[in-house]
Specification:
The protein is α/β, with parallel strands linked by helices. Helices cover about 30% and strands about 20% of the residues. It has helices spanning about 110-120, 135-150, 170-175, 195-210, 240-250, 270-275, 280-300, 310-315, 320-325, 360-370, 395-400, 420-430, 440, and strands at about 10, 20, 30, 35-40, 50, 55, 80-85, 95, 100-105, 120-125, 155-160, 185, 215-220, 225-230, 255-260, 335-340, 350-355, 375-380, 390-395, 410. It has a seven-stranded parallel β-sheet with strand order 16-17-15-14-18-19-20, sandwiched between helices. The protein has a four-stranded parallel β-sheet with strand order 10-9-11-12, with helices on both faces. A three-stranded antiparallel β-sheet has the order 1-2-5, with no helix packed on it.
């Protein structure tokens, strides 16, 4: 399959790997998606496989970028499309009405688990909140704050120990204003029986949350996270472009989508930068990209230590190739905002979110930023799910058929020219209206908080 008329490689529909369309000289650029994805390290004959044995990345360290806006404003479309959601007191809408237990510290993980087992509340274990300092502690607090404020939670129990750095009194300073009926607190050191007291509080939270009923909500209120993991050679051909078309459609209706995984923008960041609506957003994008490269070097790591072994087995050779496929999830809409840790999605359109490509961390970051649902494309497969419904979209039919207990949607028919955008859009509306994804059915709901600092 030839993806772009400028390409000098084609992708096999049998295994997702690349093969030369013509003779390629050593040092010559390898072109896929119409852009360079690396260069040949040796002479490559027509029809020969192009992979790690005969090509390499062209990427280096920090770059200097020039703002050259080249985007087309998405035409807004008036629509009466709705989903059945829960409208909160502050005007936000949720797609679930669960009770969440949010730990201030990892020491009470098993207390939270026990409470969840007894009450049906959801809990999300993590090892942080104590022995952290400075920005590292701040980021943990910001992520937890975003979870406490998430509209998919009808009620929240903030569960602490009492002696941790991120004790409830300190966390409240970061949390700011909250509804005392919806958010309750429990320091386990302060009561004789934390299980009994926790169950009592959760019972009251359930009673409060029960006043909410599903009601029609405009699709313009939807906020969708965009993520890929376990990518393969089909990711940038089937699932990611499909999600990109979904993103453009939702944004045209006034909704919001959020693209993250900064290290998987390396090599394709210029495509996002030229879509920034303002110079300020361009500067923020440069800061985000180069800042993550600085983070790599501060820890003595190679900036372009990517793709993973599984990516390579699936046909992806260089980070440029992976990134050019990855950013397609963001469609063609202009970039309307750039978010950092602690920021929440407030604007319609496409937002870029700072953070790593690590699957659990990225899904957690997206959730904390306020997305209702995550669309997660995968070519290798993963059972992972976050606190919000996590829709697994298969890039190839083999995965979709083999892992039916993981995969919610099969994007592989797009290889045969089928257009699935409307079908995916309808599916997402169903999920927003209460249809459970497989990660929810399986109970695969977890978080991981990005850590970069001293542990005492």
């Amino acid at each position: 399959m030839i993806i772009n008329k400028l390409d000098n490689v084609e992708v096999s529909t049998e295994n997702g790997h690349k093969y030369a369309l013509r003779d390629i000289s050593a040092g010559e650029l390898i072109i896929k998606y119409g852009s360079p994805i690396g260069s040949a390290t040796s002479f490559i004959r027509t029809g020969e496989q192009v992979h790690t044995h005969n090509m390499k990345t062209n990427l280096g360290d920090n770059l200097t970028y020039t703002y050259r806006p080249a985007y087309k404003i998405n035409e807004k479309i008036n629509t009466d499309r709705t989903f059945m959601g829960y409208v909160r007191e502050n005007g936000e809408a949720g797609v679930r009405n669960d009770i969440w237990i949010i730990n201030t510290v990892g020491c009470v993980n098993k207390v939270a688990k026990r409470l969840a087992e007894l009450t049906g509340a959801k809990h999300f274990e993590h090892p942080f909140g104590c022995s952290q300092l400075g920005d590292d502690m701040r980021d943990t607090q910001y992520i937890l704050r975003g979870l406490v404020n998430h509209p998919n939670a009808g009620g929240v129990l903030v569960l602490g120990l009492g002696c941790e750095n991120n004790n409830i009194a300190e966390f409240k300073k970061v949390l700011g204003e909250y509804d005392e009926r919806r958010v309750r607190f429990l320091n386990t050191q302060d009561v004789n029986d934390e299980i009994e007291e926790g169950c009592r509080i959760i019972s009251e939270l359930k009673e409060y949350a029960s006043r909410y009923e599903r009601t029609p909500v405009s699709v313009s209120k939807l906020k969708i996270g965009l993520k890929c993991g376990g990518s393969d050679g089909y990711s940038g051909i089937t699932a990611n472009p499909l999600v990109g078309r979904f993103s453009d459609k939702l944004i045209a209706y006034g909704g919001a989508c959020v693209l993250t995984e900064v290290p998987e923008m390396f090599g394709a960041e210029h495509l996002l930068m030229e879509r920034c609506e303002t110079r300020e957003l361009f500067d923020k994008t440069v800061k985000m990209v180069n800042g993550f490269k600085d983070y790599f070097r501060a820890h003595g790591q190679v900036v372009y230590e990517n793709p993973s072994p599984g990516n390579k087995e699936g046909g992806i050779t260089t980070l440029e190739e992976k990134s050019l496929g990855c950013v397609q999830k963001g469609g063609l809409a202009p970039v309307s905002d750039v978010l950092f840790c602690g920021d929440r999605v407030t604007k319609s359109g496409l937002s870029l979110l700072d953070g790593p490509g690590n699957d659990i961390v990225a899904v957690t970051n997206l959730t904390s930023a306020g997305v209702h649902i995550v669309l997660f494309t995968t070519g290798r497969g993963t059972p992972l799910g976050g606190p919000v419904p996590t829709v697994k979209i298969a890039t190839n039919s083999t995965l979709a058929k083999r892992k039916k207990n993981w995969i919610d949607f099969d994007a592989s028919p797009t290889l045969d020219g089928l257009e699935l955008t409307d079908e995916l859009f309808d599916y997402v509306i169903d999920v927003a209206s209460g249809k459970h994804t497989l990660n929810e059915i399986n109970g695969y709901e977890e978080i991981s908080i990005f850590k970069d600092g001293v542990t005492l």
